[in-house]
Amino acid sequence: MCYVDLRFSQIDHGEFISMPLIDQLLEALSEHKASDIHLIIGQPAKIRVHGTLEPLTDNIISEKYMEEMLHEICSLENWEYFLKNKDLDFAYEIPGKARFRTNYLYNYYGMAAVFHKIPLKIPTMQELLLPDVLKKICDSNSTGGLYCITGPVGSGKSTTLAAMIEYINLKHCKHIITLENPIEFVYKDKKSIIVQREIGIHSNSFTNALNNAMRSDPDIILLGGMHNLETIRLALTCAAMGIQVFTTLNTNNAFKTINHIIDSFPVGEQPQIRTILSETLRGIVSQVLCKKNAGGRIAVNEILLWTEELPNIIRENQISKIHTIIEDSKSMGMQSMDDTLKKYLLDNIISPEEAYMQAANKKKFIEFLR
Fold it and tell me: Residue 63 sits in a domain of what CATH number?
């Protein structure tokens, strides 16, 4: 694509309409089936296609052009916040075409930005090739409980969680409250009522929003990440009150997720938190994205579900036994990351190199590299 500096786009009946400068790049991102675009002063725009960064244009972004692009689509309030705080997160939408999670930042060269594409249509779990056991989680009639979707940044956690919420929306009559910063996927009520609140616009903080949500008779709260100790504390409180809480964390597996939650608290509080977590944790779905041999990417999951043994393991700080629970409970739909990688490798969906890079126990995959 050529870097074209146009402010206007001609429509069918000969008139011209205003078109933000950034839209040209974002529409090109969609045409290339890319997930993200990175904008840095002194460099060409770069897009991420199936996990790999590629230049979108030969043209270098100047300081003046960068500021003009970013300022044009930003409200006055948000722009002032960005200039003061040097960071800004918000959602930007090209009506009827695409929606983007947007991050403005400053780096060594000045202003920069990253736009992550959010599909307008929420993909189904079947389209994402997610394990059927996730449907059982969504169909659960249990009162309360904490469900964590975890993985590194860019692993598709939000997409997996959105597919699960949309499945519930289609099949069950629930009151669902989402608390996000910013709102990513936009839901339309089907069988469920879904109230979406954006932190910074509809509430001042996750803490205030969670406190309000507890009083709003929800069946489910979707919490867009547990960002600090107070948010984790309130999420556990909601789960203990009989509300199903779905959230995300940037941890790689169930073992690290449980330890992360507990270690977030002062040492003196940790025994009490272990007890609360043991009583509320219902499932952890960890995820990485792997490149497929045929092109594109596929989610690879580790799944831990509640068993009678799990609460005692958490209370007694025997988290190392989590792997044994997963191995002994495959009939329930549980699976380890390495076993899932091996299955996709033997089915020729992913390469030996890709499986080796993502594996926890790399020794299991050395023979395939040879």
Answer: 3.30.450.90
One-character DSSP codes across 261-330: HHHTS-GGGHHHHHHHHHHHEEEEEEEEEEE-TTSSEEEEEEEEE--SSHHHHHHTT-GGGHHHHHHHTG
Query: Which domain range does residue 58 map to?
Result: 8-118
DSSP labels for 314-335? HHTT-GGGHHHHHHHTGGGT-B
Averaged pLDDT, 194-204: 94
Determine which of 73-82, 137-146, 269-278 has the lowest per-residue pLDDT on average. Answer: 137-146
Per-residue model confidence as pLDDT tens digits over 306-329: 999 999 999 999 999 999 999 999
In this prediction, residues 180-196 reach a mean pLDDT of 96
pLDDT category at 93 given cuts 50, 70, 90 is very high
CA 346 to chain centre: 28
Residue pLDDT, tens place only, 3-35: 434 333 333 444 444 679 999 999 999 999 999
Closest CA to 235 of 255, 254, 260, 256: 260
| CA angle centred on 47, ends 112 and 84, rounded to 5° | 15
Q: In this structure, what CATH number is given to the domain that contains residue 229?
A: 3.40.50.300
Buried b (16+ CB within 10 A) or exposed e, 71-98: eebbeeebbebbeeeeebebbbebeeeb
Q: Model pTM?
A: 0.89
Same domain, 149 and 294: yes
